[in-house]
Request: fold
Amino acid sequence: MKTSPAAAYGGYMKLVLGSVILASAILLSSLSGFAASGGWHSDGQGTRYWHVTPPPGQCNISQAKNGALRAGIYRSEIIQQDDNVIVLRGLDESGDRRTIGFGNIRGCPELEGYEDSPNF
Reply:
């Protein structure tokens, strides 16, 4: 039984089309997984951690929390964040509530005047 050149070409096109669809599906699934991962990174040993690099010239939340830890404030939470400041509230060693503010610029400088602010 002989097949016509047109029939052979049609079979080839089905194979190519199927390969293109499969490759597109694989690409889209990998891109959506990459986009959904956001700042999640793996250390290669099964441990994942969150890290997002701040825009150039801005303070990162993890940098501000590390600054609060160095100042003796534990279990800190963000209570205000805008283009100028990041304000955290947490507990000091004696269990008292403390507030600390950082400038939202490179280096996260500690700001004066947020320690006993009644607004927070």
Remarks:
- Residues 51 and 96 are 29 Å apart (CA to CA).
- Confidence is low (pLDDT under 50) at residues 32-37.
